[in-house]
Amino acid sequence: GENVEQHPSTLSVQEGDSAVIKCTYSDSASNYFPWYKQELGKRPQLIIDIRSNVGEKKDQRIAVTLNKTAKHFSLHITETQPEDSAVYFCAAVGRGDDKIIFGKGTRLHILP
Amino acid sequence: DAGVTQSPTHLIKTRGQHVTLRCSPISGHKSVSWYQQVLGQGPQFIFQYYEKEERGRGNFPDRFSARQFPNYSSELNVNALLLGDSALYLCASSFTEPQYFGPGTRLLVL
User: Bridge-partner residues for B30, per DSSP?
Assistant: First the structure.
C-alpha cells in the first residue's frame, strides 16, 4: 500500500528564517497531496494542497512543490513567525481513492 | 458556518468494553472518514463512507465498525477495547477534496 515518509521529525528555525519539510510517497498513482498543521490538542487544519498536474503552488508565506518523477514533495514556509510552531503533516491521496495516507509529522519550533 | 463536530470530546473506558463515537459533517458534505491518531504519530485511516456506503477500510481489526446515516452523520464503533485503542479519533468530512477534520474524541482505555 501507499507509504509516505516525512523528514525531518523535528525542525528548529530562527524567527524570520525559512523552514522546509520534505516528503516522499510510494504509490505513483497518488494524485493529491494536502498538508495539515496541527497545534497541540487541536484538530489537523489544511494549510495548502497540490494536485499531481501542478508542480508548485504558493499561498502567501507558504509554498508546496511536487516532483512526480521523483515522487517527492516539499513544504516551504518563509519569514517564519511564532504562530508557525506546530506539527506539520504531509499526506498523499491515491487516484480514485479518498483515504489520506499521512506522514509521521514534523514538529516545527520557531525560536525567538 | 459550522465545521465538523464530534462527540463526546473525551471518554474513559476499561478493557473489553464497547464504545460509540459520533460525527456530524459539514453541511453539504456527503463523505465521512474516520482516522485514529496515536500520540506522536500521524492519523491512520480507518474507514470512509459516502452516501451511506463503505468506500474504503484501513488495516484495522473487525472490532472496528462504522456506519453513515441518511443525514450523512456517522458513528464509529469499537468492540472489546484494548489498551492500544487509546488514541485521538478524528472524523473528517468532504464534498470532494480536501477533507476537513473535526476536533476529535480522545479515548483512554484503562
Answer: none
